[in-house]
Structures are given as structure tokens and as C-alpha cells.
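DUF3253 domain-containing protein
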Amino acid sequence: MSDPIEAAIFETLAKADPKGVGGKSVEPADVAKHIQTEQWQRVLPKVRATALHLMRQGRLTITKKGKVVDPANFRGVTRLRLPTEAETAAALAALPPKPEVDDDFV
């Protein structure tokens, strides 16, 4: 099952950047308004949390004043965009390694 907020983020980005070449960004508020036109402010914290989760997975980039933010420490006005290949690789490299499964005990 897909997360509706995650889907709304990528739908809003697709409208802003139909060719998917990257570089075009959207505000988290635009995504919140896409989800709920009235009272979109209530959805905004969930949009930001989902965007942060996607950034840590390497599927989204959060920027502030055109520069990529540190996912562990940022505040203020941000924008969302699709990541470059280098940004995706860096995010995946930062993830903790997955534990190996020992076939003898399975």
C-alpha cells in the first residue's frame, strides 16, 4: 500500500517537472494544498516528515536557498525536488548496513 502523502509529493513534483530531469522544486505547502485544499496547514507537518523520510532513503532532496540541507539539522523555509544520481548514492551510502542473514538458523 502506498502512502498518500508520498504519492502527493511525487505527483506535485511531476507537475512541476514533467520531463523528470530534476532541478525543479516545489514547496511543502504546495504538496499539503494538493492533499487538502482547505486546512492544508494541518497536513504540512506530515508532508515535511514524509519528505525527510524520503530524503534519508535517497528518493527526494530537501533544499534551503538552493542548497541541500543536512537531514539531521535544518529548520525554516525549504523546497523539495528530485535528487541527482550523486545525491541518491550519498544518501544510500549513509544508511546503516543491513544485517546479514545466517542461513544456518533460518
